[in-house]
Specification:
Distance between the termini: 28 Å
Oligomer: single chain
Number of strands: 4
Order of helices and strands: HHHHHEEEE
Number of helices: 5
Largest sheet: 4 strands, antiparallel
Length: about 160
């Protein structure tokens, strides 16, 4: 239940507020937990401005505040060569989540952002066929981190609802 509400908030980009549809049964304790989760994420991202703050909140919603905090420990900024390759790494992962992986096309170069030291959000758009064969465009976010002496680790990926 808690994840469904968080996904609802994420998919509508209503960051920082709780969005619950009337037909979704909600338990008061879960809303309280979710409210605390939003406060934790907002606090963690408070030092960031603009798009970095929004990407930090999205990462927090996707990963959870505890995991985001945990993975931000013992990280360091990646070498520039590795940062330049993050978009390509993400482009290899995104098609695996699509209904028609072979139809995936990336119309724009992905944007790489270091939201914390060593924590990266890669965002972009993907065009792919839906189950009916129609071409749709969706946004994606990949979450990665750089760990000294280990390199880049993949944390997760989020693909938005296709734009109509």
């Amino acid at each position: 239940m808690l994840r469904k509400v968080a996904t609802c908030v994420l998919s509508t980009l209503c960051l920082g507020s709780i969005v619950v549809s009337p037909d979704l049964p909600v338990i008061a304790d879960e809303l309280s937990d979710l409210d605390q989760e939003f406060k934790n994420i907002k606090y963690m991202c408070s030092g960031l401005k603009g798009i970095d703050n929004a990407l930090c909140r999205i990462a927090g919603l996707h990963l959870g505040s505890q995991k985001l905090y945990k993975v931000s420990q013992n990280t360091s900024s990646a070498p520039q060569k590795a940062v330049n390759n993050l978009g390509n790494s993400c482009k290899k992962i995104v098609p695996e989540l699509l209904k028609s992986p072979g139809s995936a096309r990336f119309p724009v170069k992905p944007d790489n952002r270091e939201i914390f030291r060593g924590i990266y959000v890669i965002s972009g758009e993907v065009d792919a066929q839906n189950s009916y064969g129609g071409l749709m465009r969706a946004s994606y976010y990949c979450y990665m981190r750089h760990v000294p002496k280990k390199g880049i680790e993949f944390l997760g990926v989020e693909i938005s609802e296709p734009q109509r």
